[in-house]
Amino acid sequence: MMALCLGFAFGGIAAAAQDAPIQTKFRVKFVASGSVYLEAGREAGLAEGQRLTVQREGPEGSGKEIRETAEIRIISVASSSAAAEILSTELEVHPGDIACLSAEDVEKLKLLRASRESRKYPQVVTFTEGDPLDEEVREYIPRPPLPEVNRTRGRFGFEYSSLRETGSGGIRSSQLGFVLRGDMTRIGGSYWNLSGYYRGRLTSHTTSDQQTLNDLINRTYHISLAYNNPGSHWVAGFGRLYLPWASSLNTIDGGYLGRRYGKTTFGLFGGTAPDPTSWSYAPNRQLGGGFLNVEGGSFDSFRYTTTIGAAISRVAWHPDRQFGFLENGFFFKRYLSIYHNLETDLLRENASARNTLAVTRDYLTIRIQPHRVISFDVSENYFRDVPTFDARLIATGLLDKILFQGLSGGVRVELPYRLSLYSSLGQSHKSGDEKSSWNQMYGITWGRIWRTGIRADLRYSKFDSSFGHGTYRSLILSRELGEKLRIDVQAGEQNLVSSFTKESRALWVTGNLDWFVGSHYFLGCGATIYRGKTQSYNQWFLNLGYRF
Question: Which of 49, 132, 347, 538 sits in a 20 to 30 Å window from 333, CA-based?
């Protein structure tokens, strides 16, 4: 009688488990450094490579609908928590937002559950050497692939662009290129993953060697093919990428190869340095070196990462730098994050002098978020040498980290009606200055202007650094019309007084339209108007392609 009761009990539990609904929504626990952490993990069905849509509901009683704010991808999973990277965002992700699985992933989870449940038997018999029923099930039951295996999303297309310089005798040029965006995980059942975005030329008909603003922005994209097998000691990556354990080295066109021993990873890296937002940018720079990384802790509480390494760089294969680098990160949930980067160069003042070590770069930032609506940060930025980034990118906001030298502090406040205010103030002092100079930056983000659905970001900055001083203003407007059409417009103005560049004043405006035609095709077009002292031109582009 007791055995019969137990049989009914276990049978009821199994049936309840089979009928239990699959969890498709997960709460955002906290957000830090471009990463999102969820209050669910492997036990809830989450797996690396899954994509989720982050949603936010309007204030209670306001009648506002649920709105999608971002798209994220799972990059690390524990038993009861998961970490994800932000792929695209319309609004800033906040703790308390809800991340939802795609319909495709829900169906795959149902298949996985059906496969597991089909392996249950009405009676359990114990065998001393293997279970014949279990072995038979393993052999004949079809096994659906894991959700992240052969997950392929992206698009590929061709682009035609035309440029005309203003004024009499202005140069005309045209280019034919291609665009590629990919998100492919566990390719062919392996542990190779492809992700990122690339824009390149196939042919060019021009008599001018000058790069446009669009050309420079295109060079800041990343695309990489990476190998990451949890069961292997080896890691590798190739493409246009950051070294995962030392992002302070900026982008490289090349690759890395590393070997893991528990929480420790060491390896080699090498390539060119193509990113014009890099502190030490040169079009013909080559970079190579080695690193050692140690990390530990948990996303649920305290975690840390430390990287130390050495590298050499050359410009057009002529000796440039020999330096060591140290990068540290310390994080406690969403409340505290500390990041520090230090670079020391081996210098020689003259041919007869001895080599000496000198600090050439030192950057420290501390961010505190006592509540989800407000955060504070303090930063110290030091450069021994004058940076060599491309100054035409100042008004795009991509160089804010380099513009502010010295000590600065900032604050960000989230207000009702999707309003965000942020500001940063600091002092910069150079040798020979009679007094310190103030660096200032103010900005406002409006997630939805009234009922228009338009998102706006307005920013103003005044800076005084070792390479020069000036101001910039920028405005970004974007609007999504359903799931098929997206429009964005950006405008900027910058004034720069510096011996570093002749482009003292520039104004520009650029617009883009992205239209999904049907389920597999896309059409894009855009135009840029640029007016500066050394460059003045109009540029437009058109692209058409296939998405998968």
Answer: 49
